[in-house]
From TrEMBL:
PANTHER family the UniProt entry points to: CYCLIC PYRANOPTERIN MONOPHOSPHATE SYNTHASE (PTHR22960:SF29), MOLYBDOPTERIN COFACTOR SYNTHESIS PROTEIN A (PTHR22960)
Cited function: Catalyzes the conversion of (8S)-3',8-cyclo-7,8-dihydroguanosine 5'-triphosphate to cyclic pyranopterin monophosphate (cPMP).
Protein name per its UniProtKB record: Cyclic pyranopterin monophosphate synthase
UniProt keywords, alphabetically: Lyase, Molybdenum cofactor biosynthesis
Domain of life: Bacteria
Self-association and partners: Homohexamer; trimer of dimers.
Chain ranges of the Molybdopterin cofactor biosynthesis C (MoaC) domain: 13-147
EC number(s) from the headed UniProt entry: 4.6.1.17
Reactions this protein catalyses: (8S)-3',8-cyclo-7,8-dihydroguanosine 5'-triphosphate = cyclic pyranopterin phosphate + diphosphate
Annotated SUPFAM superfamilies: Molybdenum cofactor biosynthesis protein C, MoaC
Length: 159
């Protein structure tokens, strides 16, 4: 069993030395709800801070690469691919999805979740002057593959 506690009950980084290197992938999502006028401003490219979606996408990619600096006990990973997509969902939201991949000894779930979280926070930061009431919601893992624990696919309630 993997644990972040050592024999004395102290927090430590999990030792993955004996784990096999496998292809691993994780997909996470988040959503930012906002006033319809805010989304219209973003889509029209008229935001005074520039291309809000492009900046949030880059922020998400950078955050995935720096996850171990942000999350205690998280392994530093050599990601082979990070994709972050921000999709306007009229009338009042932006959907964010991140896909992280690597060949390694530990998974990339935290990197995908960090990517969507920071992209959402960046979107909020860039638009807060016009809409402080934005809501970041539904940040969750959708899928993960690879590793000893096998694959995971989010099952929606009632599905």
């Amino acid at each position: 069993m993997l644990t972040h506690l050592d024999a004395q009950g102290r927090a430590n980084m999990v030792d993955v030395t004996a784990k096999a290197v496998t292809a691993r992938e994780a997909v996470a999502e988040s959503r930012v709800r906002m006033r319809p006028e805010t989304l219209e401003l973003i889509q029209a490219g008229g935001h005074p801070k520039g291309d809000v979606l492009a900046v949030a996408r880059i922020a998400g990619i950078q955050a995935a690469k720096k996850t171990s600096d942000l999350i205690p006990l998280c392994h530093p990973l050599m990601l082979t691919s990070v994709k972050v997509e921000l999709t306007p969902q009229p009338p009042d939201a932006v959907h964010i999805q991140a896909r992280c991949k690597l060949a390694g000894q530990t998974g990339v779930e935290m990197e995908a979740l960090t990517a969507v979280s920071v992209a959402a926070l960046t979107l909020y930061d860039m638009c807060k002057a016009v809409d402080k009431g934005m809501v970041i919601e539904q940040t969750r893992l959708l899928h993960k593959s690879g590793g000893k624990s096998g694959d995971y696919h989010l099952q929606e309630p009632g599905a």
